[in-house]
Structure formats: structure tokens, C-alpha cells
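>> received
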Amino acid sequence: MHDTVVFSGNTTMLYDYLDGILNTVQFKDAAVRLGISNIAALETATRYLFDSVDNLVNPKSIADVMTSMGTKISSLTIFNYLKGLAAAFILYPVRHYDIKDKRALRQERMYYAADLGIRCVLCFNKVRDTGRLLENVLFLELMRIEGEAFVGQSASGEIDFITNGSDGPRYHQVSESVRDPHALERELSSLRAVRDGYPKTLITLDDERLVGHEGKTGSHYGLVTWW
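>> returned
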């Protein structure tokens, strides 16, 4: 995975193009929908959400962070921002799914970028956060294929994504690398705790062949190369 995206050999052109989409189309759309006049506050909230991909957030936590940074704002205002950003397809909100009770939960959500190029523009690409980018890419691909994805929640921990297709649920865990045995065990432990026999897949950047884990028990684990 490359840190810099090249557009016809001209990264400045790419940056300007994405910045134009963000500011003249998506921000304007979200602001008009909700009657937002403080575009700077909306941009700060959006940057925070882009930088917090794969973290649980709620309106109060975002408002507290922004207030501590000098932008006093209410939880209700942030709640409206979140609705507008989702309606403008800047961010996708993802709900938790209770694996045991098989139901979506009403609580904190994670937000994923609808376009990672725009995320790089807004976050200035300061940090090489390949793990977060990989998780975001997987989410977008699952949305394309399945139409919906949830963050799995169980008593034993969290699973990155669950999809519910016509053949039943599928469980997806993603990690930049699991060459370290401790990292592999950490990622597989969440999948191993779900003993329902439906497919469970671990996706990683490691250049390895497909590997099965504990296939004889009826649980299916796959180590899949992603590059």
C-alpha cells in the first residue's frame, strides 16, 4: 500500500480536485441541509471523525473534545452535524450488532470515510495509519457487496465487521499484519469465541497463502492476503 496517491503524476492536481469536492459539494450540501452557518466548526468535527476511524464516538464525546480545543459546541449541534455528514455521504455511521442476541444495538457508533482520498486531504495525511485505512477499505467493500455491515459485539470482545447475507452471517477481522504469533492469537481469539459455525475471515496485508484454522471443529477461519 502506498502512502501517496498519484493522479497523472501530479499530486497537487489530485489534492485540489478532492479539496474542491469536499468544500464546494459535500460540505455545502451538508451545511445547506441543516442550515449550518459555522462551516469551520463543521470542518473541525469532520476532521475529528475522519481521524477517529475505527473508534467509538458519540455526540457528547465529540463536543467535549472540540470544546477543549477552543470551539464551544453542544452535543445537539454535533448530533445534527452527524446526520448531515451521513446524508451527504461524507461518512458512514456503523452500528454495533449483538452477536448473542442477534440484534443491532442503539449506542455509540463508528464512522467510516466514504472516500479515503478526501480523508487524506482533510487530515493532511500526517500519519501512516495503514491499519485504519485497511479497515475502512474493507468496510467499503463489504458495503458494496452486502449493502450493510455492522461492528460485532460480544461478551468476549469486538469483531471488526459482521454481514448478514442470504446464507447467514459472516464475520470479518482485519489487521495490518499477524506475523507475530501474539498478534495472530489476538485477532483469532475474537473469532474463536463465536461458535456458530458460520464463515469467519481474517484479512491481512501479509503476503501469505490461504490458511485454515481449526477447520475440524466446524468453525472456519481464513487468513487472506490483501494488497
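>> The longest strand covers residues 103-113.
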